[in-house]
Design goal:
- The chain is an all-alpha fold.
- The chain is 94% helix and 0% strand.
- The chain is built from 2 helices and no strands.
- Helix 1 packs across helix 2.
- It is elongated and about 55 Å long.
Length: 53
């Protein structure tokens, strides 16, 4: 899996430039953070519901 990331990163860097690569990295990081926050809330809600029963 590391080879795919390296290849994709180099391809983006050489094709679109470093600014595009950093912007896409920032966007991917924000999407991952939002997903993590959403899942954390859902897990916490389910856990509190399970413990209350």
């Amino acid at each position: 899996m590391e080879d795919i990331g390296l290849t994709l990163g180099v391809t983006l860097y050489t094709g679109l430039g470093p600014a595009a690569l950093w912007f896409l990295s920032l966007t991917a990081g924000r999407v991952a953070a939002a997903g993590t926050a959403t899942l954390r809330r859902r897990v916490t809600a389910r856990l509190s519901h399970t413990l209350a029963a």
